[in-house]
UniProtKB/TrEMBL annotation, chains A, B:
InterPro entries: AAA_dom, DNA_Partitioning_ATPase, P-loop_NTPase. Signal peptide: none annotated. Residues 2-173 form the AAA domain. It comes from the Bacteria. This is ParA family protein. Pfam families: AAA_31. Gene3D superfamilies: P-loop containing nucleotide triphosphate hydrolases.
């Protein structure tokens, strides 16, 4: 039975896609079979793993999901590609609670051969993120160490609580991941301390540093673990992977 | 008659809010009366200007918009605050083409005393962004000099074309703003050259550098022009302001 994890935060550009890709890659390197599902119409997780976006989103194509899964350059790591079609984005966002429970059925039955499924969510609290939370056992919330970061945190946490109460009793907050941390910036230290002060154990110990090699890796269709294995960013995602496995 | 400009890009964290705030501040410093409208449920533009989010979004409150306008610490710069209520976000996103034309009426008639209105859009191609494009004379598209940046550009440009053809014949692409540019990063140079190669004159000459003082300003409720007037980031937004005024 796969462990389904949503990577979500309506604040944009906080490292959702980067965390979904590199954590899934870390889990695959640790011998687990990992799948990244791209439900963001931008398809960054798809292209970041060197795969072409699908013409029709697999969740709308009416075929068994397993048939749409694409292998990546890394053994043990696969991706269910997104679709850039504006029409698909509209169809997926128009979904409702029926779709959320259908998604949970589909993921549970058709993709159960994977150990971990990471769902990369778009930067919004709309139906796609809600359906994804409805289908997940946990939600990971990446947060950038910047001023605007704290603002939206209460909203995504509130949405996770609502989803747990209404649709999916199993949903837990898996953890908050501090990303793009630059120890030389006072603001980064202030935000990191504030988040830890507020959310305590819910914050992963591992902090992801700002590292340009992380932002270069997707242009090669690789995770940073394959693109620059000795980089600080790669080592941090390996550490985060070990923390995730420990928590299980 | 106000010039209404949407600041939009479905890619998250590219500097939409930062550009809406600092460009509006620049226009106010140049003697124009400027208003920032916050239609993003995260309310970053509202808090970034030191103002409390509204309990009810002014677009849903049923009062004349002018009554909800709040002055900021800077003369000539005001904000129509957003609302963090998830219910308002749903109500606004459920809007449709009627709402877009109603918004155009309301903005045209109730807020005509301003010279410039900048609408800060959420990171999505949903109804809020569509309604905002439907009400605007121009759209400014901030783009971060990073790999994922180019991916989504064709989508927002396609949406602007659709809006122009269906709802709002006046809509033009006002310009693409290169943000968070770090000249030492090869990736940044590659992306900047690619964007200029592709979009030529549509790209503003002014490039906004990565500058930590820009990301610190909102925690003081100030634009970077007031927080750190001699900073590279502040000077760049002043240059961008002059370019915007020249284009008019
Ligand atoms: N630790 C890091 N160091 C440096 N750059 C990073 C880091 N993490 C992410 N980035 C870069 O920052 C940008 C934003 O990250 P990413 O696209 O993963 O965020 P996101 O939350 O998925 O964005 P969106 O809200 O648009 O989905 C990307 O260009 C990415 O390469
Ligand atoms: N030129 C810059 N230099 C340094 N930091 C910047 C710059 N521009 C923006 N930032 C910071 O980067 C983060 C993202 O910027 P901002 O919030 O304006 O993007 P956005 O596109 O509005 O995000 P969203 O998609 O969530 O609405 C913020 O923390 C902001 O302070
Ligand atoms: Mg993403
Ligand atoms: Mg914003």
């Amino acid at each position: 039975m796969a462990k389904i994890i949503s990577v979500a935060n309506q604040k944009g550009g906080v490292g959702k896609t980067t965390t979904a890709i590199n954590l899934a890659a870390g889990l695959a390197k640790a011998g687990r079979s990992a799948l990244v599902i791209d439900v963001d119409p931008q398809c960054n997780a798809t292209s970041g793993l060197g795969v072409e976006p699908a013409k029709r989103h697999p969740l709308l194509a009416g075929k068994p999901l397993a048939e749409s899964v694409v292998a990546t350059a890394q053994p043990g790591l696969s991706v269910l590609p997104g679709s850039q079609s504006l029409a698909d984005a509209d169809a997926l966002s128009a979904s409702n609670r029926q779709r959320a429970s259908a998604l949970r059925q589909q993921l549970g039955s058709e993709l159960s051969t994977f150990d971990y499924i990471m769902i990369d969510c778009p930067p919004s609290l709309g139906q796609l993120t809600r359906a994804s939370l409805g289908a997940s056992a946990e939600v990971y919330i990446p947060i950038q160490c910047e001023y605007f970061a704290m603002e939206g945190l209460s909203q995504i946490i509130e949405l996770a609580r609502q989803t747990k109460a209404r649709d999916n009793r199993r949903l837990e907050i898996g953890g908050i991941v501090l990303t793009m941390y630059d120890p030389d910036l006072e603001l980064a230290n202030e935000v990191a301390n504030e988040v830890r002060g507020f959310f305590d154990d819910a914050v992963f110990d591992t902090v992801i540093p700002r590292d340009v090699l992380i932002s270069e890796a997707p242009s090669h269709g690789l995770s940073v673990l394959d693109y620059a294995p000795r980089a600080r960013g790669a080592r941090a995602y390996v550490e985060l992977t070990l923390e995730v496995i420990d928590r299980d």
